[in-house]
Design a protein that fits this description.
This protein is α/β, with parallel strands linked by helices. The chain has helices at 7-10, 16-24, 44-55, 68-82, 96-108, 125-131, 151-157, 180-192, 249-262, 268-280, 282-305, 330-341, 367-384; strands spanning 31-32, 91-94, 114-119, 135-140, 162-167, 196-200, 225-230, 243-246, 318-319, 343-344, 346-347, 359-362.
Length: 385
């Protein structure tokens, strides 16, 4: 019998995060600091709006692009919060930010087009580019630059086949952010070489040193940028599976075409809940951000004091300590830590080869959980020093 499977899909590497946590899930009494998921419940008034939509029988398909009141609310939010100009007809509501990333690449790439992807980064970009027929060009970011994309590194990666640049900031896994000035350097290069940007801003509300700046807000960049965002991280709505893309009308039209064939529309209940989130949930976001910031500062201080050097991240809810001095690979360190102390973290190389020598630790957990985990990490490194 012929091979029923796609060669392209078979050659994709499975997620390094999931592979590690499949092992962790078989063990008892594990303290997990690995999953990138808020530990807060979705605020009650948002849940209540979802429940109300069910009670009212709103269980039908919405338009492919999403409910117009939701797209209008997203337009208002992006305009007032980040200075973005995208109108309701330039917004597509998707099943999480991940779908928006996937169909964004599929709508824009022809076979052989190159996409510059700064690493360490979210694990989906490379496989999504490959499945869209594009060629991922990985750029290794460095700790000395606080894992920011520099103009020098971007220019070195550009060829005559380059079409897009991924900007994954605030960054998962490093927590790095980029300032308006740093983004302007990137924007000038993008415009000079006639490129497009996919700016993944899913952690835009989790910035701890001033307000998040979107590259699409800079002069001449809105027409070159696909902004990816959603409700999972900011509003603690991971299971609602709702995201969106904002982009020029001609790009959104083609993304919507793909979306209507493979998805139809995002979950209706989630869309009604999201309208409530945007209209009345920013106070909840502020309270959650304050809690994350407290944990962030605590965790960075404790890791540095115990001998795990960690630059200070100003976004998302991850730290990225350097463990290279212990003579183990990231996977070896994480595996031994799990086996010996029952603490689960993610090896840095799950986010790209340049993540080797680091760990991703999430602080989307209570201070008590973080203290318990840190005590166990201290015992572990005392044994291996």
């Amino acid at each position: 019998m012929r091979n029923p499977l796609s060669k392209l899909v078979m050659e994709l590497e499975p997620s390094g995060i999931r592979r590690f946590f499949d092992v962790a899930n078989t063990m008892e009494h594990v303290i997990s600091l690995g999953v990138g998921e808020p530990d807060f419940d979705t605020p009650w008034h948002i849940r209540e709006e979802g429940i109300y939509s069910l009670e009212k029988g709103r269980t039908y398909y919405t338009s492919n692009a999403g409910l117009l009141p939701l797209r209008e609310a997203i337009h208002t939010y992006l305009s007032e919060r980040f200075g973005l100009p995208y109108g309701p007809d330039e917004i597509l509501v998707t099943v999480g930010g991940s779908e928006a990333i996937d169909i964004g690449f599929r709508a824009m790439l022809d076979p052989g087009d190159e996409v510059i992807i700064p690493e360490p980064c979210f694990v989906s970009y490379v496989p999504c580019v490959k499945m869209a027929g594009g060629v991922p060009v990985r750029v290794s970011l460095e700790e000395k630059d606080e894992f920011k994309l520099t103009g020098k590194k971007l220019k070195e990666a550009i060829t005559d086949k380059t079409k897009m640049v991924v900007l994954p900031f605030p960054n998962n896994p490093t927590g790095a952010v980029m300032s308006a000035g740093e983004l302007q350097v990137i924007a000038d290069i993008v415009k000079k070489h006639d490129l497009f940007v996919m700016s993944d801003e899913i952690y835009s509300e989790l910035s701890y040193q001033g307000k998040h700046v979107s590259i699409a807000s800079l002069p001449g960049m809105a027409e070159r940028t696909v902004v990816i965002n959603g409700f999972s991280k900011s509003f603690a709505m991971t299971g609602w599976r709702l995201g969106y893309a904002a982009a020029p009308r001609e790009i959104i039209a083609q993304m919507t075409k793909i979306h209507q064939y493979v998805i139809m529309s995002a979950p209706t209940t989630s869309q009604y809940a999201a309208i409530e989130a945007l209209r009345n949930g920013l106070g909840d976001v502020e309270r959650m951000r304050e809690s994350y910031d407290q944990r962030r500062r605590f965790l960075v201080r404790e890791l540095n004091e115990m001998g795990l050097p960690c630059f200070e991240p100003y976004g998302a809810f991850y730290v990225f300590p350097n463990i290279s001095k212990y003579g183990m690979t990231s996977e070896e360190f994480a595996t031994k830590l799990l086996q010996e102390q029952r603490v689960a973290v993610v090896p840095g190389d799950a986010f790209g080869k340049c993540g080797e020598g680091f760990l991703r630790i999430s602080y989307a957990y209570s201070i008590d959980d973080l203290k318990r985990a840190l005590e166990k990490i201290q015992k572990f490194i005392d044994r291996w020093q």
